[in-house]
């Protein structure tokens, strides 16, 4: 019966050195030659069976791609370049070596598209469900990272694509906006940015809170994904789905400059704290609805 050591040996065989990676997976620590005068950005993300995916429906390779793409989307949100990543997996007991390999290949499929190297991690098995965690290392590459706290009154609010209905499949197959995030991070273009993982209204609330500003969203301008029309009736309007569903992984940002065709303007930043939704000529408070883990 295959053991953890067989999986680790297989992973080592996938590794190689290059100008950045002096020592890849296979030792206690990987060794990277980090560029001088460059900022190191670090993030971590976890996915749980039954919360972020369903292992009875989704293939291990698709699951691996999703957890890596979530981290890549965080890089996009700060305009940085993904460079390297380490991952951990808690496998259900008796999942098997082939299943573990497919998870790894899913991680690598997503990372390879952005020249991001998998350089280490850890594996284990237990009686619980599948859990994967990836820690990603990003490089500023000469561009100041965009945070959530730079929005200013008078800025316009933009989103890079249609929202809502991601549960029909896009939550597993989305493409992180790494290249677009990098372009938007060009100095002076974007004042604050976040990727939409928990829902437009909740993630916009993060920008408002950290920037100490408010926001007005024009409901008529919010782009709604066609998937929303395919959802079973649940009492929510298409706009409410776009504001709340989450896991769209589009970029939400504020800017004092004209953005052009890269994004859709949906509102503006205001000085008064709080969020409001304009709809049918009327203004109403916009609550930060969407996904939030209960503790």
Short structural summary:
This protein has 295 residues and is an alpha+beta fold. It has seven helices and 13 strands.
What does this protein look like?
By secondary structure, the chain is α+β, with helices and mostly antiparallel strands. The chain has 2 domains: 4-139, PurM-like, N-terminal domain (60s Ribosomal Protein L30, Chain: A, 2-Layer Sandwich), CATH 3.30.1330.10; 156-285, Alpha-Beta Complex (Phosphoribosyl-aminoimidazole Synthetase, Chain A, domain 2). Helix content is 26%, strand content 27%. The longest helix is centred in the N-terminal third of the chain and has 19 residues, at 60-78. It is globular. 43% of the residues are buried.
Chain-wise SSE layout:
Layout: H1 4-14, E1 21-23, E2 31-32, E3 40-48, H2 60-78, E4 81-92, H3 97-112, E5 117-126, E6 131-139, E7 156-159, H4 170-173, H5 178-184, E8 192-195, H6 200-211, E9 214-218, H7 238-244, E10 251-255, E11 264-270, E12 274-279, E13 282-285
Parallel strand pairs: 4-5, 9-12
Antiparallel strand pairs: 1-2, 3-6, 4-6, 7-10, 7-11, 8-10, 9-11, 12-13
Helix pairs in contact: 1-3, 2-3, 2-5
